[in-house]
Design a protein that fits this description.
Oligomer: heterodimer
Shape of chain B: globular
Strand order of the largest sheet of chain A: 5-6-7-3-8-9
Distance between the termini of chain A: 33 Å
Distance between the termini of chain B: 33 Å
Shape of chain A: globular
Low-confidence stretches of chain B: 1-19
Radius of gyration of chain A: 19 Å
Radius of gyration of chain B: 25 Å
Low-confidence stretches of chain A: 1-22, 291-301
Largest sheet of chain B: none
Order of helices and strands of chain B: HHHHHHHHHHHH
Number of strands of chain B: 0
Mean pLDDT of chain A: 83
Order of helices and strands of chain A: HEEEHEHEHHHEHEHEEH
Strand content of chain B: under 5%
């Protein structure tokens, strides 16, 4: 176990400074590192014989308040990386530090709000009861809890639907409930695992805009966002980390230097096109590479 | 076919459909009435046939349906008391069995070790024929009511245990991860996620257990008691008075109704408790 380097140390109890999301990337470079992933490898033992290398020697870091996307083809270990960062699984090799803590310890301190691809709402609870679940877990009830639920439902624009059950809502609305629930503890980290992957294109685009709005009203929240949509990644992120197909390796990290606050119209700019082409080229070049046999490749299941 | 023709065809069919399409409850009542009418008709046909053969014993064993109705009407207080005796004990035993089954199921999923330690005994318990168990229990416990409670609980707990174990283990892994991200305790994950998610499974078990529990109580009436519906059944067979076969049929009809009411009540409870299941959602056809 290596000690965390000074650059990575961060006092989790220090107040998170409010910041404006439209400050340029160059200024955000001054922010302390919040999540550092160093040389992480994850090997799954599928059986005694077969080992699947999901991630190989992955390194990147995220600064406080940054919005970073991980992009790559399916099966590249993106979701595994999110589970590693949130301490739900342990790396085979390498180091992950979250505000200077081990991921599992950070999870115990409730530093993460996680949004999964499926909304994972409880069908037996109404919208407000679903959002209230995290408060129930910490035995927070009464007017304080009710006020927090009100605030969150207002934030995601579902105040009118508080008494509805999840199965009475559209897919996009369900995912907004899931976002509200993930934000209940006002966690410093929001981890999102292809949250809009199951939605239709029109809803998906709208949800990306919604997420930008929600993020700008929760200052200081660091987001790790997993997607396989290039435009979605560019629209949302300060930085995009491109992963290769299995085993996942970092191919390139691209800074997205588009002004904030952003909205849907950013998509029409020339810079946006340029980023889109750049990312597509990186992913395609990698695909061409795959024709060559790779020493680490394992049989697909 | 042109578009206009399709439109007119569907618009002419519409009124006929709504004429046939009765509301849900009246359709169910109609269906029930048809089934009962068919059964009664078959019964009459059989009774008439029995009399035509001239076989006296067969005639005695198969009374007309109206004889049975008359018998039920004349001796309603006897049947009511017997129903209460058997039915109430079956329900109490069923409730006890459900409680034991829930507890055992919750204990069993705590660890694989505990589960594999308990499972063989739970399975073995169901290998013992009740016919053998009732006289033994009667000798040990003496009170026939206690024997009824015991047997009904015995039949119920097994089904509930299996259902609970399956239900509690069947929570979506991603939902368990979500609870993990909230740093919920084991007990909180049980209370907020695993247990509510298991409720539909538990009710499927209860639906099976309810009639079996009634049969269990009836069996105790048979061989462990001198009262109840089961006793009426046996007494009518062995104490062969002339009117006795009517008693057998009356007792059977009463048992049937009791069983139906019991299972219907469980189904009603399920609809109230796990209203969120896809089958019960507004507009669901299933």
């Amino acid at each position: 176990m290596t000690q965390t380097k000074p650059a990575h140390t961060f006092d989790p109890n220090a107040p998170v400074e409010a910041r404006h999301h439209h400050e340029p990337v160059s200024e955000r470079a001054e922010h302390p590192v919040a999540i550092s992933v160093e040389g992480v490898t994850k090997v799954f033992k599928t059986s005694n014989e077969v080992k699947t290398v999901a991630l190989q020697d992955v390194s990147f870091s995220i600064r406080v308040g940054e919005f970073v996307s991980l992009i790559g083809p399916s099966g590249c270990g993106k979701s595994t990386l999110l589970r590693l960062v949130s301490g739900l699984v342990e790396p085979t090799a390498g180091e992950i530090s979250v505000n200077g803590l081990q991921p599992a310890e950070a999870r115990r301190r409730r530093q993460f709000g996680i949004v999964f691809q499926s909304p994972v709402l409880f069908d037996w609870r109404t919208v407000e009861q679903n959002v209230n679940l995290p408060l129930q877990v910490i035995h927070e009830n009464g007017s304080k809890a009710a006020a927090r639920v009100d605030e969150l439902l207002g934030l995601v624009g579902l105040s009118e639907f508080r008494k509805h059950y999840p199965w009475q809502l559209s897919g996009g609305m369900q995912q907004r409930v899931a976002i509200a629930r993930a934000l209940t503890y006002a966690p410093p980290f929001l981890l999102m695992d292809e949250p809009f992957g199951a939605l239709d294109m029109i809803t998906r685009d709208r949800m990306a805009g919604e997420l930008l709005r929600i993020w700008s009203s929760t200052p200081g929240t660091t987001v790790l966002f997993i997607t396989h949509s290039i435009p979605e990644a560019i629209l949302l992120s300060d930085r995009v980390v491109v992963l290769s197909a299995r085993p996942g390796r970092v191919l390139r990290t691209v800074n997205i230097d588009l002004p904030r606050p952003r909205n849907e119209r950013v998509r029409e700019s020339a810079e946006f096109y340029a980023y889109e082409n750049e990312l597509r080229r990186v992913l395609q070049a990698e695909h061409a590479d795959k024709v060559e046999p790779q020493p680490t490749e394992q049989p697909e299941l | 076919m042109s578009e206009a023709a399709v439109a007119s065809a569907s618009s002419t069919r519409r009124p006929r459909l709504s004429f046939i399409d009765l509301s849900g409850t009246s359709r169910a009542l109609l269906r029930g009435a048809v089934v009962v009418a068919v059964l009664v008709a078959v019964w009459y046909a059989a009774a008439i046939y029995a009399r035509a053969t001239g076989n006296a014993s067969l005639t005695l064993k198969l009374p007309y349906p109206h004889d049975v109705l008359l018998d039920l009407f004349n001796k309603w207080s006897i049947y009511a008391r017997a129903s209460w005796e058997t039915g109430s004990r079956a329900v109490i035993g069923f409730v006890i069995g459900t409680g034991v089954g829930l507890l055992l199921g919750i204990v069993m999923i705590q660890s694989r070790w505990i589960e594999s330690a308990i499972v063989p005994y739970v399975l073995a318990s169901q290998m013992i024929p009740l016919i053998a168990l009732v006289p033994i229990l009667r000798a040990i416990l003496r009170d026939p009511d206690v024997v009824r409670f015991y047997i009904c609980a015995y039949v119920t707990f097994f089904i509930v245990t299996i259902a609970v174990v399956r239900g509690l283990k069947n929570s979506a892994p991603v939902a368990v991860e979500m609870m993990g991200s909230l740093n919920a305790s084991r007990w909180q994950t049980m209370r907020f996620l695993r247990f509510p998610a298991a409720v539909p499974y538990i009710f499927s078990g209860l639906r099976v257990a309810a009639p079996l529990s009634l049969i269990g109580a009836l069996l105790v009436d048979f061989i462990g008691a001198n009262s109840g519906l089961g006793y009426l059944l046996v007494a009518s067979l062995t104490l062969g008075a002339n009117a006795a076969s009517t008693t057998l049929w009356s007792a059977l009809v009463v048992t049937l109704v009791l069983g139906l009411v019991f299972t219907r009540f469980v189904a009603y409870l399920e609809r109230r408790v796990s209203f969120w299941q896809p089958a019960y959602r507004a507009g669901a056809t299933a």
